[in-house]
Amino acid sequence: xxxxRLTIEYDxxxxxxxQTQAGQPTxxxxxxxxxxxxxxxxxxxxxxxRTDTGVHATGQVVSFDLEKxxxxxxVMNALNAYLIEEEVSVLDCAEVDPEWxxxxxxxxxxxxxxxxxxxxxxxxxxGRVWHMKKALxxxxxxxxxxxxxxxxxxxxxxxxxxxxxxxxxxxxxARVTRVGEEVHLVFEARSFLHRQVRSxxxxxxxxxxxxxxxxDLKAALEAKDRAACGPVAPSDGLYLTGVTY
Amino acid sequence: xxxxRLTIEYDxxxxxxxQTQAGQPTxxxxxxxxxxxxxxxxxxxxxxxRTDTGVHATGQVVSFDLEKxxxxxxVMNALNAYLIEEEVSVLDCAEVDPEWxxxxxxxxxxxxxxxxxxxxxxxxxxGRVWHMKKALxxxxxxxxxxxxxxxxxxxxxxxxxxxxxxxxxxxxxARVTRVGEEVHLVFEARSFLHRQVRSxxxxxxxxxxxxxxxxDLKAALEAKDRAACGPVAPSDGLYLTGVTY
Lengths: 245, 245
What we know:
homodimer, alpha+beta, Alpha-Beta Plaits, 2 domains, isomerase (chains A, B), EC 5.4.99.12 (chains A, B), TruA/RsuA/RluB/E/F_N (chains A, B), PsdUridine_synth_TruA_a/b_dom (chains A, B)
């Protein structure tokens, strides 16, 4: 059976997260519905990252098998046609090795967190950014964020419902930059704990507001205690932007 | 009576244009409703550009008088509070000279047209970009666009319902650039004819697709004939980004 890889974009605002839940609109549900409409098969897809409710993606990757070997362009166009009422779009489709797996073959995930940092609330990007009225010191955030890079026990920045066996992860990149009226936080790692990016972002915002020092952030990490985490950033500003293999 | 200037952002998708129309949701209607809720007065606002249905703004400017002199910060915060259910946001508010007028004092308007130029349809920017699957030659578009700069009779690029007395306008800037997956067209002039930007954009896309040469575009301009215009670009990708005074 031929295996396919899709690169997917979605606006997570209208979905109860990526993963299928009975009776709830999900991104996985939308894609599997489109696959069923296309080829009549009930297919279960695998994804590189199971994003939470309200989280967006510009570079989610999924894989699945089809019974028949369709040209990848046909699969892409058909799925986009069946997804026309959804806020999900297929950006790319390719046939891949049957051993290849969107989740297990992944060697890195990249997330972007967008903060709109201005007095006026967003009209055009409502639901797609976290709006912060007070000025953030992006340089201070970037400097503090470097303490998170490397192999650490991220218990502080892990949701209490996280099902990962170990709280130890290696964060490869933590970069905070000002882009016009926005502050962008980019994080790269082989994998992340549940709500790790939003937890780190919320704590870094405390630094950006001058409420925490870089040392406070380091102490929070070293506490290995969920209670030491700052307020968790909302889902609105979070994007899965890419997966490496 | 003190006069105020507001800078406004809006997602035009849900509005029947800027200008008040009985029984229709409009941007002007939303702002005047918020002003009435704030101070109880029925105020008619003036705007730098009366954008069409579906057209967006990141830098629309409006002016109006209030009976009482409120601090400009109070006006901005109150209006944003009353606009919370709308896709309209006040970015800035200032008290201005009573002679100053958002429309008549304006010396320049700046528009951006965003084309998403990739095979996959937009999921995140649906309604906010014009989606073109075929690759556009942005350099060819930019080169051809220079024929539009200067003082011309823009009859070709003017809607048949345009109410401007003269079809002559001076286009100061026409710039086409590729920005990642998007092609951006920027136009600046003292003022524009009705649908001029969308008409010029649609014709420049013919150049970008290789269907028209730069000479064809020039010939269309010189024809001074609406029938010589290419397909008019949809409202989705158009933004009023700024006004100069």
